Amino acid sequence: MPVANFQFKPKLLSWNPIVSGNLRLAILMRRFPVFLLPLVLLSCTHAEKLDLTRLKLPPGFHIAIFAHVPHPRMMVFSPGGVLLVSDTTEGKVLAFPDLKHSGHPEKMVTVLDDLNAPHGMAFQKGKLYVAETNQVRRYDWDDATLSASNGQVIALVPRSGGHFTRTLLFANGKMYVSVGSSCNVCVEKDKRRAAVLEFNDDGTGERIFAYGLRNAVGLAVNPRTNTIWTTENGRDWLGDNLPPDEINDLGQNGGNFGWPFCYGNRIPDRSQTEGDDDRCKGTIPPKVEIQAHSAPLGMAFYTATMFPEEYRGNIFLALHGSWNRSVPTGYKIIRVKLNDKGEPQGTEDFITGWIKPGETKKGVWMGRPVGIVVGPEGAMYISDDSAGVVFRVTYGK
b vs e for 56-66, b when ≥16 Cβ sit within 10 Å of the residue's Cβ? Predict the structure, then answer.
């Protein structure tokens, strides 16, 4: 059953000393499905007003608010160049046409409503595909009217769980859907969890392509290797600096990436393995290790020409930010430099400022970046599900 179209009302969540924490949680649980509560609670935690002057970019780059969306997550451009945004909490897919590339959408159009936690989206052969928490639907798409019709469920996937968002990608003639784990660390009964599933574009031919991926939110094709790369959020409760978050290359044939038994460069998780357990030797190590608890989500390879040449072909990655690290980390966009063969050559900050430099308090931020997509004009679009905006990044001296 699709979830209802929940309308977010901040006044119900504001602090009142008379209303206990348990009662506030009960109010939330009545209004939102349990699997949506992490997004709702985290969006209620940020305590700072959005201030664009705090966001720092390299010289020549500029950032502006493109659109206001309550809880924007993933984004995709239609064949006609219109930006679509999923609002997972509200159960919507929204369209923001800006065909003149002015940086200001002409209007906002509700394309789809009453969906079950929509997240990833993609276009294939003129059809719109939307990944909900339990299924993938395919729609007829009309760019002229910005409408999606004749929705059909073409694939079912494990629903809800500890990691309930589903990301969608088409590559090499196949459809790929990432399904996160149901838990922090465990052996899944359903082997389709903590995995990237492969389908034909009509939803048939399901198989597990890659597994041992605790929560692979970002999926993108590396144009130099022609393989799928993905972000991965590592497990919790091993301290501030373990395990590293990761970027993985799924390769031509997928495989085993380690979780829950291994992390990082084939390091055994001793809470899950015995001393003589050597299963990590057969797992695939990450291409990039990232500071633990940074929460890497959306990822894009920059293949346009607006940005200077040194940025072209590089990975841009949204770090949503930590929730349980003693000193906060993440809350920024980083750049992963790649060589001519598409191999990582180091990382550097690209946009910072969503938390103040040296911030030590948990839960104090002015935003949390989620998705990244490159527009047809070469600008970069970044969703922020906490500040409730989509940013547009351009270059020009």
Answer: ebeeebebebb
Q: Beta 174-179 vs 166-171: how paired, if at all?
A: antiparallel
Q: What is the pLDDT of residue 147?
A: 98
Segment among 13-27, 44-58, 156-170, 363-377 with least mean pLDDT: 13-27
Using 50, 70 and 90 to split pLDDT, how confident is the model at 45?
Answer: low
pLDDT above 80 (res 270)? yes
Which is it for the CA torsion 279, 283, 286, 292, positive or negative? negative
- The structure tokens listed for 387 are 């500040």
Q: What is the rounded distance in angstroms from the CA atom of residue 236 to the CA atom of residue 184?
A: 7
Amino acid occupying residue 395? Y
Give the CATH superfamily of 10-395. TolB, C-terminal domain (2.120.10.30)
What Å distances lie between residue 297 and 49, 128, 237, CA to CA?
Answer: 23, 22, 20
* 118 against 15, higher pLDDT: 118
Q: Are 86 and 118 in contact (CB under 8 A)?
A: yes
Main-chain dihedrals φ then ψ at residue 42, nearest 5 degrees: -65, -35
User: What tokens appear for 355 in the block?
Assistant: 């938390």
Q: What is the rounded average pLDDT of the residues 89-98?
A: 98
For the chain, which residues make up each domain, given as ranges?
A: 10-395
Q: What is the C-alpha separation between 338 and 114, in angstroms, rounded?
A: 40
Give the residue from 99, 162, 170, 81 showing the smallest Cα distance to 130. Answer: 170
Ranges assigned E (strand) in 186-237: 195-199, 207-211, 219-222, 227-232
Q: Are 93 and 112 in contact (CB under 8 A)?
A: yes
The reported pTM is: 0.90
Phi, psi of 311, rounded to the nearest 5 degrees: -95, -10
Residue 42 to residue 102: CA distance in whole angstroms: 32
227 CB contacts (<8 Å, ≥6 apart)?
Answer: 221, 249, 250, 251, 252
Over residues 315-338, the mean pLDDT reads 96
- The DSSP symbol for 89 reads T
Question: How crowded is residue 291: how many other Cβ atoms within 10 Å of its Cβ?
Answer: 17
